[in-house]
TrEMBL record:
Belongs to the FKBP-type PPIase family. GO terms for molecular function: peptidyl-prolyl cis-trans isomerase activity. This is Peptidyl-prolyl cis-trans isomerase. InterPro entries: PPIase_dom_sf (IPR046357), PPIase_FKBP_dom (IPR001179). The lineage of its organism: Bacteria, Bacillati, Chloroflexota, Ktedonobacteria, Ktedonobacterales. It comes from the Bacteria. Pfam families: FKBP_C. It catalyses: [protein]-peptidylproline (omega=180) = [protein]-peptidylproline (omega=0). Residues 144-239 form the PPIase FKBP-type domain. Keywords: Isomerase, Membrane, Rotamase, Transmembrane, Transmembrane helix. Residues 1-32 are annotated as: Disordered. The chain crosses the membrane at residues 38-58.
Length: 250
């Protein structure tokens, strides 16, 4: 009985150790704080990512627009250059055509004898003598150039005409220099001419046909052996290479 009464009056022990609930509350607060911090960090990271993506999209769009603008500018520049080049080529062709027509009008037929030329006599390094009859103002004729010429040729001494482009309707004679398409004296004599220039060439036999007489299809001699040749030539225009090689002696 006494024992029973003693047990009933004994204080009841509380579950857990003192201060445990307070520590648990602190831990819960800390966990909530970490969650808030993580959430805040995630939101900040997401905002940074969105800003980066937005900047990348804007930059790509600006780059695309700039590239398109550059392409448009480049295309316009190229088209303008082509148009300018075409215009210049058309102007040059028109001038060449007008010059040819003017030459044909002044020379409906090649002159039978060479007209007198009073210009100073000059000489190339190979021995071709020449006189500038009329100065030109176009590009310079040089080795590798393909040039259209109007010409008339005579034999020195007899002054007999043997060939002329004017006797063929004024059709210019096209030759590419440096490829052996014409006699050596012709190539040396026209080298350095300006488009539009007229020049007289006096070509010794050694730079012409030498000891070989030139005959027509019937066998008639048109250029005797060892003949010195006289050519009056006009550089009309630069042109495309001729389809067939030819010599201005037919």
């Amino acid at each position: 009985m006494t024992q029973t009464t003693k047990n009933q009056n004994s204080p009841v022990e509380r579950s857990g150790r003192p201060g445990q609930r307070q520590r648990e509350r602190e831990l819960r607060k800390q966990r909530r704080a970490r969650r808030r911090q993580l959430l805040f960090s995630g939101i900040v990271a997401l905002l940074i990512l969105i800003a980066a993506l937005t900047w990348a999209i804007i930059s790509a769009r600006q780059s695309s627009e700039q590239a398109a603008l550059a392409d448009t500018h480049a295309t316009a520049t190229a088209n303008a250059a082509v148009a300018q080049s075409t215009q210049a080529a058309n102007a040059a062709n028109a001038k060449a055509t007008a010059d040819v027509q003017s030459l044909i009008k002044a020379n409906p037929k090649g002159l039978d004898t060479p007209p007198e030329v009073t210009a100073p006599l000059q000489k190339t390094a190979t021995g071709v003598q020449y006189q500038i009859i009329k100065a030109g103002d176009g590009g310079t004729v040089q080795s590798g150039s393909t040039v259209a010429f109007e010409y008339t040729g005579w034999i020195q001494g007899t002054n007999k005409k043997f060939d002329s482009s004017y006797d063929h309707g004024g059709q210019p004679f096209a030759v590419t220099l440096g490829q052996g398409q014409v006699i050596k004296g012709w190539e040396d004599g026209v080298n350095g001419m300006k488009i539009g220039e007229s020049r007289r060439l006096i070509i010794p036999a050694s730079l012409g046909y030498g000891s070989s007489a030139q005959k027509d299809q019937s066998g008639k001699v048109i250029i005797p052996a060892n003949a010195t040749l006289i050519f009056d030539v006009t550089a009309v225009a630069f042109t495309q290479p001729p389809q067939q090689n030819a010599q201005p002696t037919n």
